[in-house]
Amino acid sequence: MKLSILGCYSATPRTLNNTTSQVLEINNHMFLIDCGEGTQVQLRKHKIKFNRIKHIFISHLHGDHFFGLVGLISTFRLLTRETDLHIYGPKGIKEVVTLQMKLADSWTNYNLYFHELTSKKSELIFDDDKVEVHTIPLNHRVYTNGYLFKEKPGERKLSIGAVENANINVAYYRKLKQGFDVVNEDGVTIKNETVTKPGRKPKSYAFCSDTMYKEDIVPIIKNVDVLYHESTFLEQHAHLAEKTKHATAKQAASIAKQAHVGTLLLGHYSTRYDGLNAFKEEAQAVFEHVELAEDGKTFKF
Amino acid sequence: MKLSILGCYSATPRTLNNTTSQVLEINNHMFLIDCGEGTQVQLRKHKIKFNRIKHIFISHLHGDHFFGLVGLISTFRLLTRETDLHIYGPKGIKEVVTLQMKLADSWTNYNLYFHELTSKKSELIFDDDKVEVHTIPLNHRVYTNGYLFKEKPGERKLSIGAVENANINVAYYRKLKQGFDVVNEDGVTIKNETVTKPGRKPKSYAFCSDTMYKEDIVPIIKNVDVLYHESTFLEQHAHLAEKTKHATAKQAASIAKQAHVGTLLLGHYSTRYDGLNAFKEEAQAVFEHVELAEDGKTFKF
């Protein structure tokens, strides 16, 4: 699982600070999460093969999370993309994108599917043999969802000694990896778990931005390997966080602790602070495993 | 008159190539012309005091000329702007901007005025004591206008010897500069032109992008000091220019020659070419005074 941070600052893009966008590579999928203005340039700058993106997840319709979407869609057209593109986001996202295509008289030559979200409960919105994606209802000034990405369990591993001793024809190894019991050369049914071990543990990633402190997301994100939780402010500005429906680093850490996540990744920083270390320090007072998102940084989990 | 090129490439923003946007400072006005994605970052990067912008002129609603507009409007809000902002552009521009503000539930705290254009004839769209702005109807795939910016004549200059000999009270000098006749200390009416000289010659700038070769703009832009004319292609791709309703460097030069402009400024280059010199050479074969727009370059005329 690889996460590339294209932008992790709040409010407005600046010379050195990009607004929210990240690319999650998980089980051979490449997902784009949020798409602030300039995301397509960040994709190029960081040499991401962005034509591989087939699914884009938009948390909410504030500009710093989606003003780059229409430009990216338009660029895919100019690059003569043919692959389907799926957009997940709040109701209204289809109208605003299609209005711009209409005004420009520039329609995509690939299929563009909008999956508009309105539910305030967590929903399964994407599901294939590799990955599933659920919404995480958040509490912000406008309708907002985080997204939970979960790998499907991989194939089981053969316990080499055991499988050989069991006198199983090699032709059945594939079925064993898929979890089935098989009949051996002696006509005896071999229980799968006696000759295989679980595959590698499926990874999971939860993206939660933008939101104020919201404890009821804890059951949804329980035990995820990585939680990206917004921390627009430090505790000294908790009143601003409450007013603008954002979170502090301490609040993000509290959510991480309650959800027993593996790593907490902080982001969506206000640019009012000098540097990011104070965010990490504040969070680590509550929860140990904290990392700082930074524009251009890549994490492998 | 100062022109700052924020972006002058066609189609899509790239790591080193920005799409169309420029700032024209003329007679104490600061006008923004077109606003491709990332314009607000370019404004910051080039340290332009962009809160001084009160008027934005959008040529047409293709993304590479206006996808940065809503972000800039939104950033002005976050910067707690209070000054009125006027947007000039094709019909539809108001709907698309206001839809995005509605979806974000984020309305400006300053007054935002839209001046939607539909005419196919040149119109006077802005006029004060310093500058007037006219549309230049262009021929592109969607409804498009260029813009002609003309300084108003400045104050006349006193002919010092003559004005002293005429025995005029100093209190009347201001009226003389404004072009009025005055009565001198002896009760005699002094004709203005006998004691004053014309002020400095008013400057003018014509922005023409995007358009195919269109001779009937020549009378509108006649004798302008500077003509920015798009040259997306070189003549070797004249067939593409025709197909996509763009112009070649040679065609831009032909327009400049017919209109007797002072300087031709080329821009809106396709990124298919290695370097820009070929554009200049091709144009100079037709018209001598050619300059190349480049991202981040500033011209003083």
Please sum up the structure shown:
Chains A, B: Zn(2+) 1 binds at residues 60, 62, 140, 210. Chain A is an alpha/beta fold and 301 residues long. The first copy, chain A, is 25% helix and 26% strand.
Which short descriptors sum up this protein?
homodimer, 301 residues, Metallo-beta-lactamase, Chain A, 2 domains, 7-stranded mixed beta sheet
How would you characterize the overall build of this protein?
Two copies of one chain form a homodimer. With 301 residues, chain A is of the alpha/beta class. The first copy, chain A, folds into two domains: 2-154 and 200-300, Ribonuclease Z/Hydroxyacylglutathione hydrolase-like (Metallo-beta-lactamase, Chain A, 4-Layer Sandwich); 157-197, no CATH class. Chain A has helices at residues 39-45, 63-66, 69-78, 93-103, 160-165, 173-177, 192-195, 218-221, 238-244, 249-258, 277-284; strands spanning 2-7, 21-26, 29-33, 55-57, 85-90, 112-117, 124-127, 131-137, 145-151, 157-158, 182-183, 189-190, 196-197, 204-208, 226-230, 263-267, 290-292, 298-300. In chain A, strand 5, helix 4 and strand 6 (112-117) form a beta-alpha-beta unit. In chain A, helix 10 packs across helix 11. The longest helix of chain A has 11 residues, at 93-103. The radius of gyration of chain A is 22 Å and the shape is globular. Chains A and B meet through helix 1, helix 3 and helix 4 of A and helix 1, helix 3 and helix 4 of B.
Q: Which pair of protein chains has the largest interface, and what are the residue counts? A: A-B, 34 and 34 residues
Q: Characterize the largest beta sheet of chain A: strand count, sense, and whether it forms a barrel.
A: 7 strands, mixed
Straight-line distance between termini of chain A: 5 Å
Backbone shape of chain A? globular
Mind telling me the CATH superfamily name of the largest domain in chain A? Ribonuclease Z/Hydroxyacylglutathione hydrolase-like
Q: Please compute the radius of gyration of chain A using only Cα atoms.
A: 22 Å
The parts of chain A where pLDDT drops under 50 for at least 5 residues are: none
Task: Return the average pLDDT of chain A rounded to an integer.
Answer: 97
CATH class of the largest domain in chain A: Alpha Beta
The name of the CATH topology of the largest domain in chain A is Metallo-beta-lactamase, Chain A
Q: Helix count of chain A, per DSSP?
A: 11
Helix content of chain A: 25-40%
By CATH, the architecture of the largest domain in chain A is named: 4-Layer Sandwich
Beta-sheet strand percentage of chain A? 25-35%
How many strand segments of chain A? 18
SSE class of chain A: alpha/beta
Count of the separate structural domains of chain A: 2
- Strand order of the main beta sheet of chain A, please? 6-5-4-3-2-1-18
Assembly type of the shown chains?
homodimer
